[in-house]
């Protein structure tokens, strides 16, 4: 099975469940271990997220703080993969920001994917991408000039004991990123630069 991001060959990484790409260093799940669509949706419904939960609001604060500090309420945003409890949207909207929600399962407003946005936020979403090549092409296309894609995910590095790593145990986590993977995404899809701060990843699009 080739890497679903860069299409290059991978090598066995963890049993027969995960492979690692020889090119972009992504770790990706063998497709035979993917959940069915119904099972995946049921898994997401089990998440007990509450948009009014202060702990949940604090968890997403790297994203909301970035938006509040770098964009203005009159600029447009998209919460991509907003899920069952769009807490980022709530926080930003409470601050007067114009942000829309898209989720393929819970807010499937496909017309929003034809728009363009100053910023796109995606919290704990990109590790669920079955087709990351398609998704990152779309995300880059939807960003306006000088826009930013602002994501949160847990990157893997070789100091992590993958066998005992909690992040791989979620059956919906099918694509795991390393710093080298983010570097590949930035270069290949045409972002001008990126920053990584713990779980926060910001990919910036240049001027046309």
UniProtKB/TrEMBL annotation:
GO terms for biological process: methylation. GO terms for molecular function: methyltransferase activity. Transmembrane segments: none annotated. Gene3D superfamilies: Vaccinia Virus protein VP39. Keywords: Methyltransferase, Transferase. This is Class I SAM-dependent methyltransferase. InterPro entries: SAM-dependent_MTases_sf (IPR029063). Pfam families: Methyltransf_23.
């Amino acid at each position: 099975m080739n890497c679903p991001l860069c299409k290059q060959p991978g090598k066995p990484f963890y049993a027969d469940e995960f492979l690692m790409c020889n090119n972009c260093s992504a770790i990706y799940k063998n497709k035979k271990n993917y959940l069915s669509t119904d099972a995946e949706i049921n898994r997401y419904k089990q998440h007990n997220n509450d948009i009014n939960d202060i702990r949940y609001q604090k968890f997403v604060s790297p994203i909301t703080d970035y938006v509040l500090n770098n964009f203005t309420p009159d600029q447009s945003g998209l919460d991509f993969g907003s899920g069952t409890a769009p807490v980022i949207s709530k926080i930003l909207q409470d601050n007067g920001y114009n942000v829309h929600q898209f989720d393929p399962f819970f807010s499937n407003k496909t017309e929003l994917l034809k728009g363009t946005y100053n910023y796109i936020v995606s919290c704990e979403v990109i590790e669920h991408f079955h087709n990351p090549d398609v998704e990152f092409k779309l995300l880059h296309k939807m960003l306006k000039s000088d826009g930013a894609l602002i994501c949160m995910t847990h990157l893997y590095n070789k100091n992590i004991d993958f066998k005992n790593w909690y992040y791989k145990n979620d059956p919906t986590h099918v694509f795991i990123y390393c710093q080298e993977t983010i570097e590949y995404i930035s270069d290949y899809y045409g972002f001008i630069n990126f920053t990584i701060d713990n779980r926060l990843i910001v990919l910036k699009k240049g001027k046309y």
